[in-house]
Structure formats: structure tokens, C-alpha cells
Amino acid sequence: MFQGVKLAIAPIGWTNDDMPELGGEITFEQCVSEMALAGFSGSEVGNKYPRNTEVLKKALGLRGLEIASAWFSSFLTSKPCEETTKAFMEHRDFLHEMGAKVIVVSEQGNSIQGQMETPLFDQKPVFTDEEWGRLIEGLHLLGDLAAEKGMKIVYHHHMGTGIQTAEEINRLMEETDPDKVSLLYDTGHLVFSGEDHLQVLNKHMSRIAHVHLKDVRSEIANKVREEKMSFLQAVKQGVFTVPGDGVIDFKPVFDALEASGYKGWFVVEAEQDPAIANPLEYALKARSYIRQQSGL
């Protein structure tokens, strides 16, 4: 049985930050109420969440929810470092006030994840050695800033960015200081990219401090490659879904994490069109599957 693991769900199944038209009519209150109703104890932060910490704490407290973390876009490879660090400190202080221990960081320099027409697999950015150098140096700085508040940064490998593949994750882990940079392990992004998700898990287990549980519909993933779709088009088509509804067997993932003594959050994060995939229905489906497979 897992000790010290808590279960959260991301609001992206209800309302999408990159495509606000998805779930545009769904309120913050509906989103967090349904999270609690489905049996989750935590959430990440979405675009409809109040930024006033007292207001947010009250709304979450009424429903027995905590904030697990929140996404931060860094631009260390493409903009002056000061721009990223200034925004990061505001983000860090907000999350610290909300009681979060980790900060999700993803490098968005040259990213195509938010571009509606750019083919995902044909035009994925590849960092130069100079950009790698700026990224590593910048992440170490962000890690130091997080440590000032007793927090960690967890790097989110992501489709359509310069850190997507197993090879890129390996280089990032080799060149960063383990005391300053941890890894966010995301099943869905690895499988969609065509990587061996269990190999990445086992290779970097000691660095993993946050976990996103996301499943993949393989027939749509294949279609995205063949038809040269963008990341956002893939999401709209339904490439991602909740654990237990796609091709990934999560039992080995849970077994490996449990054997390693992982402590922290598991976050169900499966962006779909809520008009097609009812968010409460899918949250309940995920909660049931995770209970069956992990005992949580």
C-alpha cells in the first residue's frame, strides 16, 4: 500500500487553459465541487481559479481539497532570464501560500504546443547546445528560488516542446543538479511521443517528485502522426483520456512507484472536450480505476 501519496485531478478536463472555448461555460465552483464529489483530495490550478489566496482557500476548504501544484511556463531559451525569474517568484509565492510543495515548470521557448495549425511531429523544436546551456543554468536558478520557500521544481516533459523524448529527458537529468531540479513523470506525454514510459520511469525514479496520470487513445495518436495534426487538434480529437480508458496499463506504473517509496501527488490530468467527455463521469471512472489498480 502507498504511504504518503495523495490523489488530485487537474481542472483541464473541465476547462482548458490553451483552448478556453473548451468548457467555457463551466464555472470554477462546478469544477471543484465535481472533483470532490468524485473522491479526489487535491487539484492543480486552472485559469478560472481565483488568484486571491483567501478566496481560493475558502472555496477549496469547503470541499476538502488542497492545491497540489500549478503549471509555470519558462522561456529560458528564448527570452531574458529576468523575465522568467520575475514571473516565477510571483507564481512560487502564490503556490507557497496555498501550501503546495512542488512547482511544475515546462520550457516554452520555441514550443509549438499552443499552435493550432503546426504539425506536432514534423515541427517539434530541437534545442541547440547554446539553448541547452541557458535552460540548465536557468532551471538551476529556479530550483534555488523554489528552495528559498522549501519547495522543489518538477520539470514537465511535454509534447511539442524541446523536452519531449526519452533522449531529451535523459540529457536534462544528466546535466541538471538533482538537488535543484526534479522530474514530473507524465505517462500520457511519453506514450503519445512513442517512448517506453516504464523505461523512463525506472531510469529516473530517484528524480521523480510529481506524477501526472494520463491515458492515450492509440488510434487517435496514430491519426495525429499520419494526418500531421497539431497538439491542440490532437486534444480536440480526444488523444488523451483518464487512466483506465486508453491503452496504458497503469498497474506496472503503480507497482514501480510503490516499490520505490514514492511520496507526493498523483494527478489525473486528461484534457478532453468536456462537451464530448463529461468531466464528472470521467473523473469517477479514473477514481474507480486507480482504486482497483493501486489500492489508493
The percent range for strand residues is: 15-25%
- Major β-sheet strand ordering: 3-2-1-11-8-7-6-5-4
Distance between the termini: 8 Å
Tell me, what is the CATH class? Alpha Beta
Q: Which parts are unreliable, with pLDDT below 50 for 5 consecutive residues or more? A: none
CATH architecture: Alpha-Beta Barrel
CATH topology, by name, is: TIM Barrel
The major β-sheet equals: 9 strands, parallel
Let me know the average pLDDT: 97
Number of strands: 11
- Could you say which structural class the secondary elements and strand pairing correspond to? alpha/beta
CATH superfamily: Divalent-metal-dependent TIM barrel enzymes
Helix content: 40-55%
Pfam families: AP_endonuc_2
Family: Belongs to the IolE/MocC family.
Keywords: Cobalt, Lyase, Manganese
Pathway: Polyol metabolism; myo-inositol degradation into acetyl-CoA; acetyl-CoA from myo-inositol: step 2/7
